[in-house]
Amino acid sequence: MTPSLPRTETSGQGYRHELYPYHGRQEFLEGTVDFIREAIDGGEAVVVAVPRDKASLLRAEIPDDKAVQYVDTSPLAHHPGRLIAAWQEWITEYAAQGRPVRGIGESPWDQARSRAEVEELRYHEWLLNRAFADGPAWWLLCPYDLAGEQAALEQMARCHPEIRADGRTSPCTDFDPQAPFDFSPLPHPCDRYEEFTYSSGDLPALREKITACAEALGLGGRRLRELHLAATEVASNSIRHGGGQGVLRTWSEDNRLVCEFRDAGYLSDPLAGRSKPTRTQIGGRGLWLVHQLCDLVEIRSTPQTGTTIRLHTELPG
Question: Into which CATH architecture does domain 16-171 fall?
């Protein structure tokens, strides 16, 4: 076990978000096991949210007990938009007990099925800083396998205020605290697409357009009904808040049907839809529902370009 980590200029100030680049399984274990044991020695609880193969490695060193909880992230592996709500639930459980808590969270990069999933996982890492800025104090270590490209590591460094190397923590000089909402601009559709301009009174026609595209790709039944519900919510927001109209584009990409909605409105909160609404909350439930109904949701919005929302639905087979 390494000595206790030195305090940095960001240590002990609310939420700490630390990147841990590593090479191979041994380095993964060295950094994460030391992190867990240091927490246990300090009377802290630890929530471990890593892919199953990594969880097996850690369990062989440190089994589950009252201080260490392993959570299964496989149901969330392809849903980056649902991860913040999961972390909020896990951390709140310990915060309510008045117990200091740490977390280990490794995004399932190797399970990502598409470029869009990879970008949303990276965007999720940056959004964590906003999601917990005013919440309970805790410390999240994010292991990152250096088997990837150097450019990908540089992007990850933008998302983390701290970085760990050689058993020590220091401020990450590449961290970007003011990353824009369009952190990763959406690329152009990779295939031919259908386009439909909608306004008040056009929602039935919009659903018909989506149905025609979906059925041509073999999508129907419950999944199509869920897509209809999500699409209606997004299009209604365009009509109410996006200048009274919007543009729908549909195409297929990476074995998914993609429905893109563009309007002139501006969504100022990049966390919209990523936190579970409270029982007494008024409004703000629509985008949460959209994240639960679709396999992937991409949202980008700026005052200059308006808002673009892409809904991805897996196709059969």
Answer: 3-Layer(aba) Sandwich (3.40)
